[in-house]
Amino acid sequence: MKKFLLALLLTCAVSNTGWAFFGLFKSGYKDGVYDGEYQAADGENTRVVLTIKDGRIVDCVLEARDDMGNIKDENHGKDGSAEDYRRAQRAVREMKKYPALLVEHQDMDKFDALTGASITYSAMREAVKEALGKAK
Fold first, then answer.
1. CA-to-CA dists, residue 84 to 69, 76, 96, 123, angstroms
2. pLDDT of 67-80, one tens digit each?
3. Tens-place pLDDT, residues 49-63
4. In which domain, by residue range, is 19 found?
């Protein structure tokens, strides 16, 4: 029994997951709900709301607005050409994947921007950085 407990403890010492499981290792983030925002020079605005539990990001809500203050949704790009609308909708479709990727990877630097939504990726990184700064 002692050997089993020693082996389990050593396994946990080597694995951050094990430390988190035992509550001995935390990311340094306080549990709670934190928001962050990034205002681009062109007037576009990106906001995130992160939920932290047990020191980990468990939920992320992303809101991106264009330079007129409109939410980037199924109407984004409709006032332009057909090609503009197609590109805008691709960006909307791809940016919707970012919150789940952040929850999965726990760090924006651990996944790349998706084609078509790289500007939102950069803005989201800044907003996440601000939100996590509040969670320290």
1. 18, 9, 19, 20
2. 999 999 999 999 99
3. 999 999 999 999 999
4. 1-27
Residue 50: CATH number of its domain? 3.90.1010.20
Residues 72 and 123 in one domain: yes
Same domain, 10 and 70: no
CB 38 within 8 A of CB 46: yes
Task: Provide the domain count of the chain.
Answer: 2
Q: Is residue 103 located within the same domain as residue 46?
A: yes
Residue 53 tokens read as 């539990």
Q: What's the confidence (pLDDT) of residue 28?
A: 87
Task: Tell me if the pTM is above 0.70.
Answer: yes
- Are residues 63 and 47 part of one domain? yes
